[in-house]
Amino acid sequence: MMKWMLNGSGRPWKYWIINPERQNNMNDILQIVKEFRIDGTASAFERVGSGHINDSYRIAISPAGLPGYFLQRINHQIFKDIPLLTDNILKVTKHISEKIRLAGPCIQCVGLSLVPARDGHFFYRDDEGNYWRMFNFIGGSRSFDQVPNAGLAYEGGKAFGLFLRLTADLDADSLSETIKDFHNIKTRLAAFKKTCEEDPYKRAEEAKNEILFIEERSAGMHKILKLGLSGRIPLRVTHNDTKFNNILFDENDKAICIVDLDTVMPGYVLYDFGDAIRTGANTGAEDEADLEKVNINMELFEAYCRGFLESAGRSLTLEEKSHLAFSARFMTFIIGLRFLTDFLAGDTYYKIHFPGHNIQRARAQFRLVQSMEQNASSMERIISDLCKSNS
Ligand code: GN1
Ligand code: MG
Prior knowledge:
A hairpin with a 5-residue loop joins strand 1 (2-6) and strand 2 (12-16). The longest helix has 22 residues, at 82-103. It is built from 13 helices and 11 strands. It is globular, with a radius of gyration of 21 Å. By secondary structure, it is of the alpha+beta class. It folds into 2 domains: 13-136, Phosphorylase Kinase, domain 1; 150-389, Aminoglycoside 3'-phosphotransferase, Chain: A, domain 2 (Alpha-Beta Complex). Helix 4 (150-166) runs antiparallel to helix 8, helix 4 packs parallel to helix 9 and helix 8 packs across helix 11. It binds 2-acetamido-2-deoxy-1-O-phosphono-alpha-D-glucopyranose (GN1) and magnesium ion (MG). 2-acetamido-2-deoxy-1-O-phosphono-alpha-D-glucopyranose binds next to loops. Residues 51-53, 78, 241, 243, 260, 263, 286, 335 line the site of 2-acetamido-2-deoxy-1-O-phosphono-alpha-D-glucopyranose (GN1).
């Protein structure tokens, strides 16, 4: 069932829920919390986060003073195998926590851990078929949908670089693909083409400029896939959803934790780098309506790259380094392509906050692609200068 509701900021959103009544019912959420082995008693909850897929809640605990918990309803229309996804997350969180423990105070980050349900599993399936899971809440932290200064961009780059380093000795083959062909341009373009042809909601006319934009660029977007398939870049454990707001910062603006681990799986580092630039060096919001406001911010770009290369540069191959600037353009393109496909398909994948939200998101992504095209040579130069100083 589809329903319009108000989120915490008073803006309407639309999302798919099985039983609309249960969403705002405090007792229902607190009932779910009781299914997990928590310390203390849940006293309140609030809806948090700006993700487009799962529903997230902060759970407050009494006695007061404990950091509380982070409860999520996992979108199982999208993540179809929850036990497999949970197994991935357990492997990754345990690996990272152990690394943090061994490194001691020399690395400043906090590990995530899943809280077991009463039956010992690390998720709970309610009687309506919804899947829930619980993490420790990282108290005192905050995240940024847009990056206000270069210091934060630098910290963010260091954090995703550190994530890569901490997971470098975790065998990529030990993780499963939670969404098959997630960043596979060939598959994404085929789905787009099919949706355009079928045009089930008769929206292709409205999107004709964006469709043309994709057609003009699609041939040049297969580089990373080809490098991967031919073995010229390695498969690594990668995050695959490195939106800047998946980095948690402490009150001193130091990055302390990487969250949203659903898509941690084997992948190419270029995907992680590119997606972080898409969101971390944009002068506008991901869904900015005023396209004049959307540009690559070169100061934020330089700072993110500096942090990332200081932290992970030595573990990257030359081939990877030489495609970093392109990867930003690529990831912005493929996410725009996915937003547009979802618009044409009737908004079934991403939560939207108003009709036309997905095409607005796609337009903002494509404007950012254009800005990156215009700045391509400066982006290349910044990266090659930084690579020299970090080799
Ligand atoms: C989705 O839910 P969220 O915001 O963490 C999507 C990402 C996209 C992103 C675009 C599983 O992530 O791939 O980059 O929206 N996640 C999935 O904002 O599709
Ligand atoms: Mg995500």
